[in-house]
Structure formats: C-alpha cells, structure tokens
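Technical note accompanying the year-one report. For the benefit of new consortium partners, we illustrate the data format agreed upon in the data management plan: each record pairs a sequence with a structure-token string. No post-processing was applied to the example shown here.
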Amino acid sequence: MSKNPEYFTDTLASEQWFICKRENNICEIVKSNTKDEITDAVEILGAFGSQGEAIAKRVGLIRSGKCQPL
C-alpha cells in the first residue's frame, strides 16, 4: 500500500529542532513536533528547520558565553 505524497510532506514539515537551556546553563538540542512538548527548560530557542541549523546556533551561544556545552 502506497502512502499519499502529502503524508510525507506533513511528516517532514512537523519535524523541528529546538535548543533547550536547562537550569545549569547547559544547552541541548531536542527534536520535537512542537515547542509545547518540551518540559523542564528554562529557555527554549527555535524552531529550526534542520539539526545542522540548531547546532550552528548552539555553537554561537556557547562561544558567546550564553550556554555551556554538554
């Protein structure tokens, strides 16, 4: 059984990447469908369309001293 092409478009469009800053200032990259699904974060940045884009932003935050690496 073949899936409808819109199914794949909707699935890809719903995948988003976020940067979650925790209480200890550690920032981690999380894949989620919505920002509301993310819990226990002090600050949430994003949504980013790709993991690479989120990684680049996180690197910038670490270099500027706004986040700590894992």
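Partners are asked to follow this layout when depositing records. Residues 5-63 form one domain.
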